[in-house]
Amino acid sequence: MSGIAAPPKTEKKTRTERPRLYKVILLNDDFTPRDFVVEVLKGIFRMTESEALGVMLTAHRRGASVVAVFTREVAETKAQQGNDAGQSAGYPLTFTTEREE
Ligand code: NFA
Fold this sequence. Notes:
The structure is a single chain. By secondary structure, this protein is α+β, with helices and mostly antiparallel strands. The chain has a domain of about 70 residues: CATH 3.30.1390.10. It is about 45% helix and about 20% strand. A three-stranded antiparallel sheet has the order 2-1-3. It is rod-shaped. Keywords: Hydrolase, Protease.
């Protein structure tokens, strides 16, 4: 043995946790026109016509529909943009966010 101790390891393992995800949920209402909902979904969530139609119809029939899942900031921003689009046009269109799990 040399009698010379090795220096203590100071390196720390970096653990990168996956960010929590948030659902954006579209709520049904009796006033916002179907076409308007579809246009908002296409514009804000980059959906195709048929994807947007499917989400709109699910909310219309069941009361609510999951639109998509994002990190918190993105989900909240997109929900707000959707609500603002409805407000600007005089409709009660409502998007909410909900943490997953
Ligand atoms: N229920 C609305 C109508 O019949 C359409 C709608 C669907 C509104 C989904 C909001 C969300 N005009």
